[in-house]
């Protein structure tokens, strides 16, 4: 489904390489986790894949279902089935969550040549999905992420995911800032969306999220590269020993 | 044979219009119609001619001449933060009327089909079951009466009979001068005096048409009233005059819309709106101003120099101004409230968008004279391109206006880094029992917000429109339903090309 080959990325503003040759292949229905210390390039990878300004891909490719992602605008990537759950979801004052969701869904449908959903049909979809995710109606009426708690913001991301039904979901440190209960709620939401036709890339610092969202493959990333890949047990090793041993093994100086 | 040519021409014209309409300003086409013009320039003779064209009584002519004689001694105001090119007042037509309007149509059926087609195309069909554009409601559910002003004349007013049943007078001002002289004499110039300012004085001398509304005591106007202004003729100024009187315990909601063709040369629009609000009555006045804003380089467009004022004369009188200012090359406009009656209330909700080379200096005046008066100002200014956008507002609480309150919220939004937003509040409080609050913010459309929207599938322009509509929400909510939908899409259209 998603195939990243030898991706090199530097910051546009300064001559600083962030990703130094990332290779990653995620098959349909698979859940991959990327772990790594601060500054390893995990979030950069999610931004580059979703098309944020400020990064320059100097080498390599990223292909989603045959679409050359790097050649597309962010909204085209979305319509092609890519979704990024933000680490820090953005507030949009004055724009109701419902309006936002409907505008987004209809923009994607339009881009794919599908008919736009009427207000009534949309309402039915949202109500059903919100109920499944245990999101109360009040949150749908409020402006996008404004005054939301950390947990509400992350659940709102999952709700968007449920409504937009992407093929490839990237979760960028979705666990950050969540207490144990909120993490369980969010994880339940993600697990409910697991499907043979939908893949996930879960970016996290901590193993504990992976107790809830069980990955098929775990990658350890540092210094802009994937150092090691393995099964869920790899996450447990990191949890127990930290990154220091791994970094030393691969000859990388520890980042403060 | 002639018929055939006509059809072919029509087809060609349509093609041209379609192409023209692909630009962002949808209303930039012009109606080809034979016009009668007064000679260019302004003199006492022109004032006499305008008065004669309208079959006005002597007292009206005298009133105009008095204004003209004062105007020639005046100079244009320069205090606004606007760069106004010198206007040659002798190079303007002060009167332009479609030839077909020479004999006044007695009903809409007699109006030139070309004129009716013009309004139809603008989304303002002059039929009596029709609603404003953008809304499809079951027939007869909600009706809006329209007075349509084309250049210097009113071409027709709908629903007059139905309104007359309720005792409401809704007609063109030229007709009111002839048919209801006692009302016009009593109220004209009583809110905006002839001497008020340069453009109001000019308007007093040369206004050619506009709307007149009288709601009798205790009557709630059975439908919304609206005036639609269209400038069509080239090098012509539009000087309309609107007079609205809500007698004791009356209520009316009034809507105003405006458009003009795309042209390289700038055109002057200097209107005056006077609203008289008696005891326990309420008037809502909403404007969606969409005059041609000029092109990206600031060529052409309308100079919108307008004086609008409401006078809450009686106790507990209420007025609410709502404006969405998206068009015009230059806007100079301060819809104001005189809160004379005790417990009277004034509200001002404004969205002003300036894109490309547009300039706007707009705001309000809240003059508290009566006891326990209340006012509320919510202004949302949006600047994009190389535009300059100024909020200028006065809150004045006089010594006798005890226990009065004002709340002002003034937000500016910047798109890009070449535009400007300015806030110039004047606050005068002359007693100790009143309270004034002023809040102001300036923000930029945030790249993170746009990126967030785009990762959800919206393109850049959709994203900007969404964020800006969110920014304006409080004001959009204050608009009547018909206008709110129109205004929302207008916000998006006005900002086309403002990013990227």
UniProtKB/TrEMBL annotation, chain A:
- Care to name a GO molecular-function term for this sequence? ATP binding
Q: Which Pfam families match?
A: ABC_tran
* Residue ranges of domain ABC transporter in the record: 2-248
InterPro entries reported in the protein's UniProt record? AAA+_ATPase, ABC_transporter-like_ATP-bd, ABC_transporter-like_CS, FeS-cluster_ATPase_SufC, P-loop_NTPase
Keywords for this entry? ATP-binding, Nucleotide-binding
- State the PROSITE patterns in the record: ABC_TRANSPORTER_1, ABC_TRANSPORTER_2
Record SUPFAM superfamilies? P-loop containing nucleoside triphosphate hydrolases
Which family does the UniProt entry place this protein in? Belongs to the ABC transporter superfamily. Ycf16 family.
Q: What is this protein called?
A: Fe-S cluster assembly ATPase SufC
**Which organism is this entry from?**
Paenirhodobacter populi
């Amino acid at each position: 489904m998603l195939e990243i080959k030898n991706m090199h990325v530097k910051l546009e503003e300064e001559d600083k390489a962030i990703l130094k040759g990332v290779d990653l292949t995620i098959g349909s229905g698979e859940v991959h986790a990327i772990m790594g210390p601060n500054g390893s390039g995990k979030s950069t990878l999610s931004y580059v894949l979703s098309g944020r300004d400020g990064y320059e891909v100097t080498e390599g490719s990223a292909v989603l279902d045959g679409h050359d992602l790097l050649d597309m605008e962010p909204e085209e990537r979305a319509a092609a089935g890519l979704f990024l759950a933000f680490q820090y979801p953005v507030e949009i004052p004055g724009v109701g969550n419902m309006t936002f969701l409907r505008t987004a869904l209809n923009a994607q449908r339009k881009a794919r040549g599908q008919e736009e959903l009427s207000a009534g049909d949309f309402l039915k979809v949202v109500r059903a999905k919100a109920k499944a995710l245990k999101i109360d109606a009040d949150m749908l009426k409020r402006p996008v992420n404004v005054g939301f708690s950390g947990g509400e913001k992350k659940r709102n991301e999952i709700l968007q995911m449920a409504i937009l039904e992407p093929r490839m979901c990237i979760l960028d440190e979705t666990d950050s800032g969540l207490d144990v209960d909120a993490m369980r709620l969010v994880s339940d939401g993600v697990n409910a969306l697991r499907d043979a036709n939908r893949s996930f890339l879960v970016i996290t610092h901590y193993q504990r999220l992976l107790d809830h969202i069980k990955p098929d493959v775990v990658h350890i990333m540092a210094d802009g590269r994937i150092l090691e890949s393995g099964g869920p047990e790899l996450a447990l090793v990191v949890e127990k020993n930290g990154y220091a041993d791994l970094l030393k093994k691969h000859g990388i100086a520890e980042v403060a | 044979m002639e018929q055939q040519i006509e059809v072919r021409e029509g087809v060609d014209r349509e093609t041209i219009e379609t192409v023209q309409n692909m630009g962002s300003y949808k209303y930039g086409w012009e109606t080809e119609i034979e016009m009668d013009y007064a000679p260019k320039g302004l003199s006492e003779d022109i004032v006499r001619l305008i008065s004669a064209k309208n079959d006005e009584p002597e007292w009206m002519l005298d009133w105009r001449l008095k204004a003209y004689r004062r105007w020639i001694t005046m100079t244009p105001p320069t205090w606004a933060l606007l760069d106004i090119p010198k206007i040659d007042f002798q190079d303007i037509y002060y009167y332009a009327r479609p030839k077909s309007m020479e004999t006044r149509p007695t009903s809409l059926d007699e109006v030139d089909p070309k004129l009716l087609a013009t309004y139809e195309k603008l989304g303002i069909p002059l039929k009596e079951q029709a609603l404003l554009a953008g809304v499809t409601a079951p027939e007869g559910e909600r009706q809006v009466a329209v007075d349509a002003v084309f250049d210097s004349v009113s071409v027709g007013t709908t629903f007059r009979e139905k309104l007359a049943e309720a005792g409401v007078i809704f007609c063109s001002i030229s007709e009111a001068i002839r048919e209801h002289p006692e009302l016009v004499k009593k109220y004209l110039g009583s809110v905006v005096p002839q001497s008020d300012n340069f453009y109001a004085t000019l308007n007093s001398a040369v206004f050619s048409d506009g709307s007149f509304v009288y709601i009798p005591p205790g009557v709630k106007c059975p439908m919304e009233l609206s005036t639609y202004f269209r400038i069509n003729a080239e090098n012509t100024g539009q000087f309309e005059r609107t007079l609205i009187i809500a007698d004791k315990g009356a209520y009316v909601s009034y809507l105003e819309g405006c458009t003009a063709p795309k042209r390289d040369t700038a055109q002057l629009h200097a209107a005056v709106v006077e609203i008289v609000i008696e005891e326990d009555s309420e008037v809502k006045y909403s404007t969606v101003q969409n005059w041609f804003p000029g092109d990206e380089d600031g060529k052409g467009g309308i100079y919108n120099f307008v004086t609008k004022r409401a006078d809450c004369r009686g106790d507990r009188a209420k007025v609410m101004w709502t404006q969405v200012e998206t068009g015009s090359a230059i806007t100079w406009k301060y819809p104001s409230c005189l809160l004379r009656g005790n417990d009277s209330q004034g509200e001002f909700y404004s969205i002003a968008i300036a894109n490309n080379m547009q300039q706007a200096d707009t705001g309000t005046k809240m003059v508290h004279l009566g006891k326990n008066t209340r006012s509320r100002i919510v202004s949302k200014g949006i600047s994009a391109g190389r535009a300059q956008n100024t909020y200028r507002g006065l809150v004045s609480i006089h010594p006798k206006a005890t226990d009065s309150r004002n709340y002002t919220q003034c937000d500016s939004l910047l798109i890009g880094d070449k535009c400007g937003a300015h806030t110039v509040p004047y606050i005068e409080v002359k007693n100790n029992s009143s309270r004034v609050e002023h809040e102001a913010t300036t923000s930029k459309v945030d790249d993170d917000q746009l990126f967030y929207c785009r990762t959800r599938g919206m393109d850049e322009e959709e994203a900007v429109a969404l964020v800006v509509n969110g920014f304006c929400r409080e004001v959009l909510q204050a608009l009547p339903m018909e206008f709110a939908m129109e205004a929302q899409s207008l916000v998006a259209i006005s900002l086309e090309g403002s990013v990227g």
